[in-house]
Amino acid sequence: MDKREASAALERLASRLATLSGILDKAEADPAGRALEELAQARLAPDMHPLAWQVSAVCTQALQFLEWSRGHEVPHTVAEVTGWAEARAALAQTRDRLAQALADAGETPEGKRIVLGPLGLYLDLSAPRYLDDWIVPNLYFHLTTAYAILRMQGIALGKADFMAHLMGDLKPIEPELAA
What we know:
Elements: H1 3-28, H2 36-41, H3 51-69, H4 84-102, E1 111-116, E2 121-126, H5 127-152, H6 159-162, H7 175-178
Antiparallel strand pairs: 1-2
Helix pairs in contact: 1-3, 1-4, 1-5, 3-4, 3-5
């Protein structure tokens, strides 16, 4: 993955972190005044991690790609984030790190080995597959779960909140094209 592709990947990850931040902003501005610490502990299902952990997992995916793209390894573990303020801080720090990294993105390593220790398995992925088949699906899984938890808790979110990265591209239809 060359410098341009690595930079584009970091921009995409940064954009999705901004989407998550916007979703959390809406929860904080909720007129019903739901307790943020209760929201941080809310789960989509009893066997799933709570919202605060989901935020940490989104950050983890972005940071894993960032560190790997710089030739460093980070464990495939999610930091145990439990409270609202802690989740927001993790998200802000991750967004800052990605913003700083965009200025000096370089070529990435050729590939990535992912060890799934508890399963006794591993994956060897090319750089594009690591991004497209590991990082992005995992990031979207946890981003979607965070969105769903907040929707389930009554936060007024819609598809536009989830697709916020496209809102700046919307343009009005010219009257002659609308017919």
